[in-house]
Amino acid sequence: MNEAKPQDGSTVKGYRTLAPEDIEMMNEIKGVSRDFLKKLDFLKFTHEGDPQVMRWLAIARTDMQTACMAACRAVARPDDDS
Question: The Acb2/Tad1 hairpin domain covers which part of the protein (predicted)?
């Protein structure tokens, strides 16, 4: 995952201004995700010959990325996309 600069919400249309505790929570969520993805990378390295394991690790990576995005959106509470 890329290390993005912290945002205050004022420069991105459709987002409210984030409180410091919101930013801290989002950074914690991203940290948990980063740690989990590192563990998946380790498993990928140790099981690289098994295509079934690789498939499940890829699914786990995608699902973790989706979970992180959803949790961050829950904290940021952006406007509806409609």
Answer: 12-76
d(CA 45, CA 55): 13
Contact between residue 44 and residue 57 where contact means Cβ atoms under 8 Å apart:
yes
Q: CA 16, CA 7: separation in Å to the nearest integer?
A: 11
Asked if 43 and 57 touch (Cβ cutoff 8 Å), the reply is: yes
Scanning the structure block, which residue is given the tokens 């952006």?
78
Give the integer Cα–Cα distance in Å for 14 and 55: 36
pLDDT by 10-residue block (mean), the chain, 82 residues: 58 80 96 97 92 96 97 89 56
